[in-house]
Recover the amino acids of this structure.
């Protein structure tokens, strides 16, 4: 994705303090930029390029999924709205632990819904539980990889541009959302055939 020459990139020590959240990513930081310079940064190599493109993948997936029937769109747009608060809190947090805490309430809410279904208080396709479990497992694992900062912790500087924990977390979240979609489709197909119990 390198189409143009960018500015001189900074190392960790010269990076603004609000961007110093991974001490194992040593080089490739963009200098403070104008809006136009930020747009130009989509086309030259720096250590956030993979993060930018993996962030961009989620809206593309969401827009693609909006092509499905109305019920699916409502479930997807509701998930997006519920996630928006966590994303806002995560982007304003100054440490990785605070970023993870921004998403914990979502995980607890989903876990409680999962328990309702496992113990019979909630209903849905028996096959979708596996998909929702994989979804949450991927999201939690991605968060832990990002907090622990693996693999760059073991080879500082080697994963500055590609393959660092933040990018791995993004990919795992994308996979998680795909599993959410598959689980929702499974539940919607089940609803079409479900008969409410008679009293």
């Amino acid at each position: 994705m390198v189409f143009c020459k960018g500015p001189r990139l900074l190392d960790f020590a010269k990076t603004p303090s609000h961007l110093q959240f991974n001490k194992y990513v040593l080089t490739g930081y963009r200098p403070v930029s104008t809006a136009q310079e930020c747009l130009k940064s989509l086309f030259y190599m720096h250590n956030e390029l993979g993060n930018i493109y993996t962030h961009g993948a989620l809206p593309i997936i969401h827009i693609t999924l909006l092509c499905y029937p109305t019920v699916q769109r409502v479930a997807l747009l509701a998930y997006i709205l519920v996630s928006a608060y966590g994303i806002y809190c995560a982007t304003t947090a100054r440490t990785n632990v605070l970023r993870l805490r921004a998403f914990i309430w979502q995980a607890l809410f989903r876990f409680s819904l999962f328990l309702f279904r496992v113990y019979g208080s909630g209903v849905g396709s028996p096959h979708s539980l596996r998909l929702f479990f994989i979804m949450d497992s991927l999201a939690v694992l991605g968060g832990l990889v990002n907090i622990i900062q693996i693999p760059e912790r073991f080879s500082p500087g080697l994963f500055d541009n590609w393959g660092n924990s933040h990018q791995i977390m993004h990919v795992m979240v994308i996979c998680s959302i795909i599993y959410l979609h598959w689980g929702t489709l499974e539940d919607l197909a089940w609803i079409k055939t479900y008969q409410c119990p008679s009293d």
Remarks:
- Residues 56-192 form one domain.
- The helical segments are 35-40, 49-65, 70-92, 96-118, 128-148, 165-193.
- DSSP finds six helices and no strands in the chain.
